[in-house]
């Protein structure tokens, strides 16, 4: 990248000011430093974590990213903030179950072969599952959803297992005792990313029981992200899927 910019300056295609702007790694908004260079380093632009930010923060960061034609994903954003953000930036799509906003600005979305499977134990886990699924779709990956297939009725999972086995990677979301990733991990030959949720009764300890079950899984090939971290599960699945597509 640096060599290309220097050649363009040398040939007169770029001015010094234009080159300086392209080489800038972040934009300082005072309250935030927007990392415009992240897509070049990691392949995907920065994601806005909505919790703790005001609607004004989200709007200003989004406008900075829009100026660079970057796709914008905002996670963990409540309805009150959504209303204010969409009043200023109506091109945002709101996904209520996942508490997520997405705006497509870039035309160079990568094209991948194959799909990611999102396997969810119960309907109560849907907000985390949809956060994972929509994160993957925002990065241009096909997602196939298999919901309400928890271990209390294992036949529901087995009805879809042939299609799940054809995925590049599977993200498994479960609360309660968190056993579903171990079951899936023993039935497929690809990586499984386990996402524990805070869904469950008192001894669930807000997802800690599911987290510990997943960390102690006897099935090989399982990686675990933090409690309720659907975004992390979906993002890591995309990274694996991208590597698989480089073969």
From TrEMBL:
<feature type="domain" description="PurE">
    <location>
        <begin position="114"/>
        <end position="246"/>
    </location>
</feature>
<dbReference type="InterPro" id="IPR000031">
    <property type="entry name" value="PurE_dom"/>
</dbReference>
<dbReference type="Pfam" id="PF00731">
    <property type="entry name" value="AIRC"/>
</dbReference>
<dbReference type="InterPro" id="IPR039476">
    <property type="entry name" value="P2CMN_synthase_LarB"/>
</dbReference>
<protein>
    <submittedName>
        <fullName>Nickel pincer cofactor biosynthesis protein LarB</fullName>
    </submittedName>
</protein>
